[in-house]
Amino acid sequence: MEIVPIFEEKLFSFHYENERDNEFDRLMELWTDAGFLQGYAKKNSIKNVYGFIEDILQNAEEIQDYLDNLNQNKSPYGFYFEPLQESERKKQILSFQKGKIKKNQLRLYAIKIDDDCFVITGGAIKMSQRMDEHPDTAKELVKLNDARKYLKTNGVTDIDSFYELLSE
Amino acid sequence: MTNKEKFLALVAKETPNSLEKNKVRIKNRAMLRESQQIAIKVLKKLDDLGWSQKDLAKEMDVAPQQVTKIVSGKENLTIETQLKLQNILDIPVLASYYENKGNESGQWVLIIDKKVERFATATNLVMGGYKSETISKKVERQFYKKESYQMAG
Fold first, then answer.
1. Chain A touched by B11 (CB under 8 Å)
2. What pTM value is reported for the model?
């Protein structure tokens, strides 16, 4: 696994082995693929398959616009991310985060390095209230834990040590 | 050189251009939306017909990977491909779909018109043109009546 910068020096993403793209690009490719979404809807027994496809395609556009606006206005990416759960709010470093837009079913998961520095670990279509109730989000929870472990193992305990890890 | 400076020098070479890709997606949105709508029409029709994407590839005489690209909704489809999809699946992709349908219904209107004309001629022959003559005289009278009111006013 490696970390790549995706939106200048503020938003990063993990790029896992055996994947062609980093997580942000990979997910954007999937969430804008009507054929993939049809298969996903059928696998998850969604009744209105084509309504679901239209919704997800629109949700993906919303994320594209939101992040582009933050970038253009030089706004912090913390406007998009929020703590994954209440217990994460108190953590100063390496807290789990979720990217969230109102009424949007798509989630990007990340680890917070500092107030305006996040590393995306993955993402999923929200299909259940709790993350461990659906295999996709359960897998994302494992990825979040693995990523935090990876960062800690490599001595990332503050923003400087994070950048040090990237330059190795 | 600080750790951060070292990092930035390194990342500049390795950047995957995600930001740029995101901007391109936004810039090409109108085209992508059209492509997505075609993909959805194709997927729906395949569902209705009970066809697989492989069946469609066979009908179109293309590789299955080409159909995967079409239904992804990201391809800038050529007119040739759009026409193939329209003709094979009988789905509206190009404006010609409605124009052809319009011509087809136009032909039906012509056939019906001719039938009505023939029926009217036959009826006229039987009735000796009585009814149509009466009606036209009534209309003629009403017209003159109205005109005279207007002139008087």
1. yes
2. 0.78
